[in-house]
Structure to design on (257 residues):
């Protein structure tokens, strides 16, 4: 998941653990996974419902990158997690141990007040998005091309975690049309499905209900394997942009064997 997150954010490199937060509203750390503060943990467990046996969510921080925290707030009569992004990368994730062998419907809501300047999901140097919901799957790695095996081995050596077999990412795009599937510029094992696009819906809550299996088939042309992680992600580091994003309730249906 570490290398996966780096590729989603348009950066690569090994991450080291760091438990101490910074002194202002962003975190300047060397880190990987960090336990969520009690207030955030309580809010996440209330708003974000999944079949995980251990429902802890954790924040995820990159070396040399600013981290804008997830903050529990109320906006437009909805409880939410807010991210005040400023040239930053913010990730909140939950890992499934054991993995979820059956994944059903996913419902979630998000809201943004702006878009990253000049963002382009097809360009690694500009691949920012104000909001994402990330689903990381297992699968038959024998079907991978050699490049994917090399990336996964790099991830394992640096972090102890292999690259997921396939990653489906729901995004709000600056320019791509809703329904578009955009391949990650570094690996086609990460594919983004655009749900919202452009500025017309800025400042509005956007509610989505998705059939994960159907979306995975659309993006990858095969059946999804077991689900190993889900994450929320806001990033504006590549475009050096500032915006505010909110994540409302999320419900993921599924089950482990």
């Amino acid at each position: 998941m570490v290398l996966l997150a780096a590729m989603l954010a348009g950066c690569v490199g090994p991450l080291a653990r760091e438990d101490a937060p910074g002194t202002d509203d962003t975190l300047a750390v060397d880190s990987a996974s960090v336990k969520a503060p009690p207030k955030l943990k309580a809010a996440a467990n209330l708003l974000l419902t999944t079949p995980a046996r251990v429902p802890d969510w954790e924040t995820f921080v990159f070396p040399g990158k600013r981290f804008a925290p997830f903050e529990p707030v109320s906006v437009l009569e909805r409880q939410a997690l807010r991210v005040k992004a400023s040239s930053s990368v913010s990730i909140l994730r939950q890992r499934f141990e054991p993995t979820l062998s059956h994944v059903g419907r996913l419902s979630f809501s998000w809201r943004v007040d702006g878009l990253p300047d000049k963002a382009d999901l097809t360009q690694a140097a500009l691949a920012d998005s104000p909001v994402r919901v990330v689903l990381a799957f297992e699968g038959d790695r024998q079907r991978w091309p050699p490049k994917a095996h090399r990336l996964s081995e790099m991830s394992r050596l640096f972090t102890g975690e292999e690259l997921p077999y396939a990653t489906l990412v729901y995004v709000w795009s600056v320019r791509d049309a809703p329904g578009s599937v955009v391949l990650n510029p570094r690996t086609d094992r990460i594919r983004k499905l655009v749900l919202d696009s452009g500025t017309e819906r800025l400042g509005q809550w956007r509610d989505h209900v998705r059939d994960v299996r159907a979306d995975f088939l659309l993006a990858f042309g095969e059946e999804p394997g077991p689900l190993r992680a889900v994450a929320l992600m806001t990033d504006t580091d590549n475009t050096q942009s500032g915006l505010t994003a909110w994540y409302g309730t999320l419900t993921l249906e599924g089950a482990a064997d």
About this structure: The CA atoms of residues 34 and 60 lie 6 Å apart. Helices lie at 2-9, 38-47, 146-159, 212-220.
